Amino acid sequence: MLREGSEIRGTWRIRQEIGRGGMSVVFLAVDEISNQKYAVKEIRPDGKEELAILRKSLEHEAEILRELSHPGIVRLEAVVPDRDGILLIQDYIEGDTLQQILDERGAQSEKMVAEWGIQLCDILNYMHGLSPPVLYLDLKPSNIIRQSDGTLVLIDFGSARRISSIDSNESKKVPVVASSDESGVFSEPAFSYAFGTAVYTAGEQRTGKNPDARSDIYSLGITLYQLTTGRLPEKKHEDEVFNCKKEKSVNGFLPIIKKCMEEDPKNRYDSVESLKIALADVLKQEKIRIVKARRKLRIQILLSLLLFLSAFLINLIFFYLIPSYQKKYAMQKKNEAYALLMKKAENASEEQNKSYYAEAMELLPEEPEAYLGYWEAALSDGVLSETEDHFLQEAFDKIPEGREKNVQQILAQKQSADIYPKLCYELSMGYYCFYEGSRESGRSRALFWMEEYLQAERAALQTGNFQSITGASWRTERMEILQAIAQESDAMNLPDTSEAASSSFRKCWEEYQQLLVNIDAAQTAGEEESLTALQLLIEVSGQIQDHAREFERCGITIEAMQCSLEQIEGMASVIYLSTKRKEESRQEQTQKEEELYWTLEENQEAAWAKLEFMKIRTTG
């Protein structure tokens, strides 16, 4: 018996066992010279009689294989008689049998099986076209190897037979084993060795009738059916028709197989060439079906894409463009209404214009012009009431719909042109000079808006646009002066003897002197409101009257204080004379300016009197 390392006639060396079944074992061998691989089939029958029959059968197989030359047929290298058996040496075909593929992967696609069927038709057509024709007579998945490139190779030609002709009388009985006379179908010597695998063989082959090319077609039909369905046909009895139980084939493939499996040879294809044409037509129809399916899929994808785009456009129109247009249209209408309210406010009386400005602030809360207009209207009488202050505080603290910040923060962030800095300045001066509430509340609010103004200034300086938003540098100087005065105010309330109080009075006096210079510069530029200037002059005059002694203690002479009073009186006279020339349309504001002027005069007289008294006491 062969084993790994055994040599056959000094040419082939056994490498390993690769298969086993029945009376045979298959080994992989290598030619020691060419290094080519071969399959060695060792057959060991049970008795001498079987050995003799087997040798004759293998000699017959070898004789047939030597005459065959086709890429789909295994090539026989040699038949080597052995003491206890026979060695059949063939080319080693790398790949898996269709039976192995079926066991591992299950039923195959109709397209794949049809392609395999066409390859098998080519092989059988070659064999049937020889003279005399050769029948394979044992076609089954285990005798077909699929190579790595997809081509099929037939192996095991033990059942193959030559025929001299195809007898038209298919009812003629002949032995299953062929006879050597010329009257029968077979031209082989007589053997007692049966051939073929029952489940794959045609009825005429099983019952002793004359097999022909249609017998191979039957076996091919059974093989294709098994590869397609994953099982053999049902009711495998000699006189019963095999039944196709798989669902109806969409491309006509199973009807072709059913025709191959007809029990009556007359109902089968008359040649493998006809079968090949039918299978090729199936592939063609399948290709057409695939092309149509792909075209249909492309159309469906295109339609889906168009549907998606349509839906997208509809959503874009209804959920973006239309709302966007509506929003834009609504904003346009709001802007028009806002402009109309602002125009009405400008032309309305002083009693009505505040209501128009308030409506405009409610309509477009992020636009600063209405706030500035309301503020100027509120100060037209020279007094900022607590009601007006409360209304403005609520307006600035309001958070517009869809925003996270309040109106004041939004206005500060926008810094629209020079409107917001101007608004900050007007608010700071209004709270500082005209708030009717407590002095502390007014100064606190004034300091907040002063800081807002200075922040806007710093932001503008970084962009180089400060002059464009402020209009004059004296406003910035005034904000800084008033901030400094506010910081010293607390220390001025300390006991007179404290060093901190003395220092604060000195600093405060210096700031008041700068404030007088600032007021004069604003009046000279013609950009200062008379009411504001008079109110600031009243404050300076009042501070001299109230704190003359404290100023004197910190080194300010009476003459210096008198000089300041003269300066205040001179600026007040200029303002008073200009007030007399005001138009009648500003009668209310002119009256307020005159009231402030006479208040200032009273302060001045009191301050002069106090300074004179201090001077007399000092000299006396």
Overview of this structure, please?
By secondary structure, the chain is of the alpha+beta class. It folds into 4 domains: 7-91, Phosphorylase Kinase, domain 1, CATH 3.30.200; 96-289, Transferase(Phosphotransferase), domain 1 (Orthogonal Bundle), CATH 1.10.510; 348-471, Serine Threonine Protein Phosphatase 5, Tetratricopeptide repeat; 496-620, no CATH class. Helices cover 59% and strands 8% of the residues. The protein has 19 helices and 11 strands. The chain has helices at residues 48-67, 98-105, 110-128, 203-206, 213-229, 253-260, 272-347, 353-363, 369-378, 386-397, 407-414, 419-434, 439-463, 466-470, 473-492, 499-525, 530-553, 558-580, 587-619, and strands at 7-8, 12-21, 24-31, 37-43, 76-81, 86-91, 96-97, 134-135, 144-146, 152-154, 161-162. It has a 6-stranded antiparallel sheet, with helices on one face. Strands 7-9-10 form a 3-stranded antiparallel sheet. β1 and β2 (12-21) form a beta hairpin. α3 packs antiparallel against α7 (272-347), α7 (272-347) packs antiparallel against α8 and α17 runs antiparallel to α18. Residues 165-194 and 236-248 have low confidence and may be disordered. InterPro entries: Kinase-like_dom_sf (IPR011009), Prot_kinase_dom (IPR000719), Protein_kinase_ATP_BS (IPR017441). Keywords: ATP-binding, Kinase, Membrane, Nucleotide-binding, Serine/threonine-protein kinase, Transferase, Transmembrane, Transmembrane helix. This is Serine/threonine protein kinase. ATP binds at residue 41. Residues 12-283 form the Protein kinase domain.
